[in-house]
Amino acid sequence: MEVRWDVFWIIMGSALLTFIPRVLPLMLFSKIQIPMWLLRWLEYVPVAVMAALIGQELFMADNQLVPITQNAALWAALPTIAVAIWTRSLLGTVLVGIVAMMILRYLMG
For residue range 27-40, what is the model confidence (pLDDT) as tens digits? Predict the structure, then answer.
């Protein structure tokens, strides 16, 4: 089997580019003491990112705001969120979301 050096260097470069952003912060933050206010602030980053991703997916389509009456994703999200809060079951939440979306797409035609 012949080694294609261009593919090899692309793979090595990609590995390096994914390795650096993961290792560099670990090396940096393991050496310094992070202030408590920054730790408290960082706790909200995952929630904010998830809310931004979900919010955009629920309210926008083709870079335009979707009207509530035609927004199947938003209506399907309501029972899905309720099941997620009530049961804390990932499988149950996913199943309710899929079924709710199937029903709404069928009804909205």
Answer: 888 888 889 999 99
- Mean pLDDT score of the chain: 92
Dihedral sign from CA coordinates of 8, 9, 10, 15: positive
Residues with Cβ < 8 Å from 105, sequence gap 6 or more? 72
pTM over 0.70: no
